Structures are given as structure tokens and as C-alpha cells.
Amino acid sequence: MREVIYLDYNATTPCLPEVISVFETFSVKIFGNPSSAHFLGKEAKNWLEEFRRVVAELLEAESEEIIFTSGGTEANHFALWGVALEKGSGHILVSAFEHPSVLYPALRLAEMGFKVDFIPVSSEGYVEVEEVIKRVKKETILVSVMLANNEIGTLQPVKEIAKFCREREILLHTDACQAVGKIQVSVKELGCDLLSFAGHKMYAPKGVGGLFIRKGVKLKPIFLGGGQERGLRAGTEPLALIAALAKAAEIAKKDVKAESQRLFFLREKLWEGLQEIYPKVIRFGTPEKTLPNTLTVSFVGLKGFELLAKMPEICASTGAACHDGKVSHTISVLKVSSEIAQGVVRFSLGRYNSLEDIEKVLEIVKRTLDYYYV
Predict the structure, then answer these.
(1) Torsion-angle region of residue 88: left (phi > 0), alpha (psi -120 to 50) or beta?
(2) E runs forming strands in the chain
(3) What is the pLDDT of residues 187-223, one digit of tens each?
(4) Are the CB atoms for 169 and 139 separated by under 8 Å?
(5) How far apart are alpha carbons 128 and 148 in whole angstroms?
(6) What is the DSSP letter of 216?
(7) DSSP character string of 279-315
(8) Which of 45, 182, 322, 335 would you call most buried, defined as having the most Cβ atoms within 10 angstroms of its Cβ?
(9) Quick one: 50 and 126 in the same domain?
């Protein structure tokens, strides 16, 4: 197998050894159904609530405010459709460059008769509070703005938007799947009503995530069945996956600040090196208002997917130009030139990256550019 440097942590993260160990324990030794009345069921139920507490602590939430889901996509659907089903009608505002798991449910709600509008995004990749204020109506029931964009990493003013929405008794949902575990995320500080998160973005397995639902917020369930998760999310809880998620949350809570600082340093080293190698390179977002691990750039004049294809040692993503030449939704919303859009490459760093990795990446990029493009 070719030795590669993984720089696609925004796509997914590997499970940490401690996380795998916990997953194995709760797959084999403590395997009871939390809904069973016997000893093994009660044991599983006790552990389930302990894991809920640990995950809640990471977000500075209360245990009863956390509902476990199969991941970020389900959590986003639950937030939008749960509110819509509870309200019955109304107006929904969604930022124009949300993840598809927010955009598509919103579009489906529009087909069902809800009024849906999209908040424009600045060319730098930020939602402006004024744009939200201009579009709110008397019948607005929900605003959804992601905390961090998955493609370019820009951090959105969720706290300011939440304050505006709270004053008008409008619910605010934020998709924080790319942010939780990478930066400190506090629902108390943000003031949001609903917040989605995903395990596989924070070194836990795929197939588990959750939704924070602030006390007093009412949602209609989108899954019906056995009444698990306070009757809001039917289906037997996957205890081993939730255990793994809790272990990842515990680790993140201990060192997320130090790790984010380390990744910020590595990211800026990468950016400095790319500028020296290819002076026409540009970056998306400002350093302080972007996820510390994310560097999305455009090699202006080149095609990102072609460049990556010539560097198989580097696992990164285009985020903009696919093999059929289409531009990603996020980049198209920014309304940059075709030349810039086609040259986009996203480098997203993680726990297993080192300064040596960055130096190797820069060597590979320089060698590739010298060989193919000079």
C-alpha cells in the first residue's frame, strides 16, 4: 500500500485507540439493550445515561438536552423537520451554503408548503447578521446557520444570530458537525436552540451523532417506534457506538484548546509554504475566523482535481471542482471566478499530522508543479 499523508480530516477522522477499546468493550462485554428490564438491560441503561452526561459536558449542555442519532445527517433532518412538524406551517431561513443534509430537507419542506428562503453569503465565505435580519418575517419559525462551513472552514456568527432570534422567539439551529471536537463549542455561549454533531468528525466511529435540544423546545419525532430517547428518536440505542462517541468527547474536552493551537500553527506553516511555491495561490476565509485545522486554497489557473490526481501521496479533497468539471455548491455560492473555482483544494489537518508531514506535502507540491506545470 502506498504511504500517504492524510489531510482530509474534515471528510472523516480515524478512530482513536482509546475509542476503539471502549467500542469493543461495549460490543462484547456490556451488550445489553438499554430498554430491557433485566440486569443486563439496566446496566446498559445506566451506561447510556453516563455517556449522555459526558457528551453533554463537552457542549456545556444538560444531559436531558442530548438526543443520540445515527449521525449529523439525521440530526439535521430531525432539527428542521421536527420543528416544521411541530409548528405545522411557517417561514424557514437557511444559509445558502449549508451542508446538503440541511439544504435538501429545507427544499423538501418548501415542496410541502413551508416558505423557505436562503441567506446569502459574502464572497469571503461568511453569513452576515444583517442579511438574516433583513429576511426574517413575522411567520419565521426557524433559522438554520452552520457553525463552521465544511468545505472552507469559515466560522459563522451564530452567537449574534441567536441573540437576534431569541429576542423574537424564533428558533435557531446550527449544524456544528465540523466544529465540535475541533474547537470549543458551548451551547450556553452560542445561545442556539438546536445543535447537530457527528461522531466521525471527532475521532469516533461513523454511524453515531446527536442533536442538542434546548430545554423547552418542542420537536415532533421523525422516527416512530419503541419510544427510546424520551420518545423523540425511536430505535434501540447503539450502546457501543455511543460509548465510543462519549470517549471521543471526553478526550476532546481535555485537549481541544491545545490541539486547535497546534493545528493552527501547522496550517499556517502549510499556507506560508504554498505561497512560496505558487505565488498565485489564494485562501478562503481569514485565519482567525476559520477552523484551525482547515486550509482551503485555490491554485489559480490550475484545476484542483487534476493537481491532486498527480499527487497520490496526498489525501486531500478538491471541495470545488469534480472530475466532470462542476463547481461545488459552496464555491458557487461565493460567486468567485471560474478560474478560482476550478483550482480549489481543501487541506484539513488532524491529530496524526506533524510538522514533518507539512514539510513533505510542500516538497510533493513543489515537485509536482515543477514537473507538470513549468
Answers:
(1) left
(2) 5-6, 66-69, 91-95, 115-119, 140-144, 171-175, 194-198, 209-213, 281-283, 294-299, 314-315, 344-348
(3) 999 999 999 999 999 999 999 999 999 999 999 999 9
(4) no
(5) 14
(6) T
(7) TTEEESS-GGGB-TTEEEEEETTS-HHHHHHT-TTEE
(8) 182
(9) yes
Give the integer Cα–Cα distance in Å for 244 and 241. 5
Contact 104, 136 (CB under 8 A): no
Domain CATH number, residue 169: 3.40.640.10
DSSP summary character for residue 235: S
Q: Are residues 214 and 260 in the same domain?
A: no
* Residue bearing cell 482530509: 8
Question: By residue range, what is the domain housing residue 46?
Answer: 17-252
Q: Are 3 and 357 in contact (CB under 8 A)?
A: no
Max Cα–Cα distance, the chain, nearest Å: 71
Strand 5-6 vs strand 314-315: parallel, antiparallel, or unpaired? Answer: parallel
3-state secondary structure of 153: coil
Active site residue 165: no
Q: Are residues 198 and 299 in the same domain?
A: no
Report the relative pairing of strands 66-69 and 209-213 from DSSP bridges: antiparallel
**Kind of pairing between the strands at 344-348 and 294-299:** antiparallel
Q: What is the pLDDT of residues 69-125, one digit of tens each?
A: 999 999 999 999 999 999 999 999 999 999 999 999 999 999 999 999 999 999 899
- Distance, CA of 179 to CA of 153 (rounded, Å): 9
3-class SS of residue 97: coil
Question: DSSP letter at 135?
Answer: H
pTM beyond 0.90, yes or no:
yes
158 near 371, Cβ under 8 Å? no
Nearest one of 239, 210, 244, 205 to 72, comparing CA atoms: 210
CA dihedral 254, 259, 260, 265 (to 10 degrees): 160
- Which of 110, 84, 58 is CA-nearest to residue 251? 58
Q: Are residues 168 and 53 part of one domain?
A: yes
17-28 vs 239-277: helix axis angle to the nearest 10? Answer: 160
Return the exposure string of 62-82: e unless at least 16 CB atoms fall within 10 Å of the residue's CB, then b.
eeebbbbbbbbbbbbbbbbbb
